[in-house]
Design brief:
By secondary structure, this protein is an alpha/beta fold. The protein is built from nine helices and 18 strands. Strands 5, 6, 12, 13, 14, 15, 16, 17 and 18 form a nine-stranded antiparallel beta sheet that branches. Strands 3-2-1-4-7 form a five-stranded parallel beta sheet, with helices on both faces. Helix 1 runs parallel beside helix 2, helix 1 crosses helix 6 and helix 3 runs antiparallel to helix 4. It starts with a strand and ends with a strand.
Amino acid sequence: MKRVVVGLSGGVDSSVAAYLLKAQGYDVIAIFMINWHDKTGTLEGDCPWKDDLVFAELVARKLDIPFHSADLSKEYKKRVVDYMFHEYEEGRTPNPDVLCNREIKFDEFFKVAEKYKADYVATGHYCRKETLEKGGNNYYRLLAGLDPNKEQSYFLCQLNQEQLSKILFPIGDLPKERVREIASEQNMPTADKKDSQGICFIGKVDLPTFLQQRLEPKKGQVIEIPKRFAGYLDFDPANTDPGYLSRPWEYQPEDGIIIGTHNGAHYYTIGQRKGLNIGGKKEPLFIIGTDTRRNIIYTGEGKSHPGLYRKGLAIRSADVHWVRPDLQLETGESKKFSIRIRYRQPLQQGALHATDKSMYIIFDKPQRGITPGQFAAWYEGDEVIGSGEIE
């Protein structure tokens, strides 16, 4: 009998994942991860993980499976939270959920599972895995979940073949409604429990308050850039060089007018609308650029402002990750893919261009809110082929 360790989170998805695995004949062990103790900046509850721990234990008791907890908070702080603070300080916007899966759930948690001699690790993610035999080797395909409203393959876009070989996704081919139904049919304590939201393992936070733990507030200028900024007017759409098309817009203070102040450029991100508290405009203001060195925020009026849109993006070659290494592009190669630059974004069409220093992604249509520090993931059909952190 194969043994599987399930990351039981205290939510309905992992509860049903554990139930299905036991029904399929696996020897199931449940482990609850404790990854965050600090409640600074959290918006809900004094200590939400303690409530989740109670639910997880109740589910394990209901399923009659062994239950344990593992405190990974030191690793989480070092490998996810410290990285987050550093990225925000540099004016970038990290994705903690992608990092949490790569660094904690499918790395540090694997080490815990090994102590229980597990053959597999399972989670309640809405994605799927298939095994493909090619050239005498097995390759593990990371596929989108079948429920389009819950599909989570983007969050797993940094996983590698070794990790995928040991992972099971029991609910990936089910719609959320069916998962809820199964939980109700089995009288699960989590059947009606709301889904968790916010930062992975931390929950919903007021981001400036959370970041103020390490990044001090400091007054700076808010500068509005006109829609007829010279940089937009000088842009040459006939220039098809990927390096040219992927360049971010660059602004200087003299390019616009001062319209207010802010409390720290590191608290803001490109595409953000809320939090400026500057009125008197016909249309909403959006963040179109940040300069943490000079502590300046650049804004544009209206959701159609050209500063919000770019034709392409760049990923340093060292930051390019291939989930399917057998499909890796060689230097000088180009290929069409479907691409996603944020969770829940519909897949966009574009091409990857591999060079020795960078991977350039050029979209068929300009994309809104391309943000340094976020991850771009590329797909063939419903399979995640690779990903990388946007430069």
